[in-house]
C-alpha cells in the first residue's frame, strides 16, 4: 500500500509527538523540569542540574545540548558554558560542538522533510528566488561556514535557511561542524571566564588557530570535490 507524502509527513509528526508523550509517561517530572530550566536560562543552575546525573552527566549533557540545538532555542551558549564548567574548557567545547552539530543536523533533516517541497514550489515561481537557490547549491558550503562562525547568531535561523535551500546535507554538516568551533569556543570561554572571574586570552587564540587549520583543510577538500 502506497502512502502520499502528506500522509507520511502526518505520520512522522505524530511519531514525534508520541515520543514526547512516551517520555512524559515514563518520567512525568522530566519535561517540566527541563522546560523550566530552559526558561530560566541560568548557566550555573544548568551546570548543577547536569552534574546531578553523576556518571551519566556526559551523556545527559550531550543529549540536552543536542535537543536545544535541534529546537533552535534557547541560546546554545547556556549549555556550552555549562559544559566547560563541568568538564573543563577542552572537553566542554568538544562535547558542545559535537552535540550542537548533531542537533542542527536533526533540525535540518526534519525541516527539509516537512517544508522543502513547499519551498521548492514557491522558489520555482520566482527567478530571483531560483537564482538564490542555485547559489546555495554552488556556494552554500562557504556561506554556511562563515555564518556558523559568527558568535551569538541564532542557530534556529541558520537551520531553517540551510534546510529550505538547495545546500547538500554533506556540505551542511561539514560547514556546521567546522564553523561551530570558533563560535562555540569563543562563547563558552567568555561565559566560563565571566562566571569564574578568570581571564586567559591564549585559550581563544588557540581556538582561532585550530579553526583556521580546519577551515583550510575543508576549503581544500571542497575544491577537490568541485573539480
Description:
This protein has 227 residues and is mainly alpha-helical. Helix content is 84%, strand content 0%. The chain contains 10 helices and no strands. The protein has helices at 5-26, 30-40, 43-51, 57-71, 77-87, 89-123, 127-149, 155-164, 169-196, 201-226. Helix 3 (43-51) packs across helix 5 (77-87), helix 6 crosses helix 9 (169-196) and helix 9 runs antiparallel to helix 10. The chain is flat and about 55 Å long. The N and C termini lie far apart (43 Å). 33% of the residues are buried.
Task: Choose one word for the global shape.
Answer: flat
User: What letter string, H or E per element, gives the SSE order?
Assistant: HHHHHHHHHH
Structural class: mainly alpha
N-C termini distance: 43 Å
Helix fraction? over 70%
Low-confidence runs: none
How much of the sequence lies in strands comes to under 5%
Radius of gyration of CA atoms, rounded to a whole number: 19 Å
Helix and strand layout, with pairings?
Blueprint: H1 5-26, H2 30-40, H3 43-51, H4 57-71, H5 77-87, H6 89-123, H7 127-149, H8 155-164, H9 169-196, H10 201-226
